[in-house]
Design brief:
By secondary structure, this protein is an alpha/beta fold. The chain folds into two domains: 1-77, no CATH class; 124-283, Lysozyme-like. The chain contains seven helices and eight strands. The protein has helices spanning 17-25, 35-43, 58-72, 139-156, 211-214, 233-246, 274-277, and strands spanning 99-100, 105-107, 114-115, 125-130, 187-189, 195-197, 217-222, 250-253. The chain has a five-stranded mixed beta sheet, covered by helices on one side. The chain has a three-stranded antiparallel beta sheet with strand order 1-2-3, with no helix packed on it. Helix 3 (58-72) crosses helix 4 (139-156). Bound molecules: zinc ion. The site of zinc ion has 4 residues, from loops.
Length: 283
């Protein structure tokens, strides 16, 4: 029987046992020259161009579920809390490629100046997103998706590059029960209006496509594909509640975020009707 994720639960194309050892034992399972890395590359999961879940082929579903199952069962080799250098906090970077580890200082990539006091303030700004998927995927599903779309591409590049070596995947974010979390948003708002927190307010998410925006914003994602439609009334009510609680100075859509060259980091997130519903939330 097919589950709602579009996967039957039976592997017909891949043989999970062929990859088990690589996932479980090799902490660099994601690298392009590993068996799993090759699989990820073939399925298009190793970059931000990964397709929307609703469009996935059977092979892509099987690849996703292979990694997903290993992750939720705790059979996926990941980094540990202890392995970052003492002064390194994943969240305190000021653009990773420009971090000066010897002096423990960030160099502002725009001005070239030293940044001695990286100011994080996630209540300053709210950035609104949509999941751009059929609604109803589980948080665990989104957790694996974020790991593959956000973290794997960065770690393949050698990030974090404090010693120029590759490292096991490590988000630096943990749930209360100690499980590593890869969510890029701080909060999900479901179509029923239910809110699910995925990052603490003092943690930095990967969501705006811009580090200067990420370190000072809260990422809130509305579950659904609002390319041509409006979020539900319950979603809008919950978003308003959250905005009242966080009291940000500004509320913007992902599509309004610009990179250092002045280009948009997203063309349509959270969909084409933002100009209509933004008024309802006071943006
Ligand atoms: Zn977005």
């Amino acid at each position: 029987m097919k589950d709602r994720l579009g996967f039957s639960g039976e592997f017909k194309i891949l043989k999970p046992s062929d990859y088990k050892e690589n996932l479980n034992i090799n902490p660099l399972w994601y690298l392009p020259d590993s068996p799993v890395g090759k699989l990820l590359e073939n399925a298009g999961f190793s970059g931000i161009d990964a397709k929307k879940p609703i469009d996935w082929s059977s092979e892509q579903w099987e690849t996703f579920h292979l990694i997903h199952t290993a992750r939720i069962k705790g059979e996926l080799a990941l980094g540990t809390k202890e392995e970052f250098p003492a002064n390194f906090n994943d969240d305190d970077r000021w653009c990773p490629e420009d971090w000066d580890y010897k002096r423990n200082r960030g160099i502002n990539r725009f001005t070239g100046k030293e940044n001695t006091s990286v100011q994080k303030d996630h209540s300053d700004l709210i950035v609104v997103h949509h999941t751009n998927t059929t609604p109803g995927y589980s948080l665990e599903f989104f957790n694996t998706l974020a790991m593959l779309r956000l973290y794997v591409p960065e770690f393949i590049k050698g990030f974090p590059t404090y010693d120029g070596k590759f490292h096991p995947l490590n988000s630096g974010h943990y749930s209360r029960d100690g499980k590593m979390q890869f969510h890029g948003y701080h909060c999900y708002i479901r179509q029923s209006g239910v809110m699910q927190r995925t990052l603490r307010q003092d943690e930095t998410g990967f969501h705006a496509g811009s580090y200067p925006i990420n370190i000072r914003s809260t990422g809130i994602v509305l579950d659904g594909d609002f390319t041509d439609s409006m979020p539900t009334q319950n979603q809008i009510s919950s978003l308003k509640l959250l905005i009242n609680y966080l009291e940000p100075d500004n509320i913007i859509a992902h599509q309004e975020v610009k990179d250092k060259n002045g280009n948009r980091t997203s063309h349509n997130c959270p969909g084409g009707k933002w100009d209509i519903w933004k008024r309802k939330i006071g943006a």
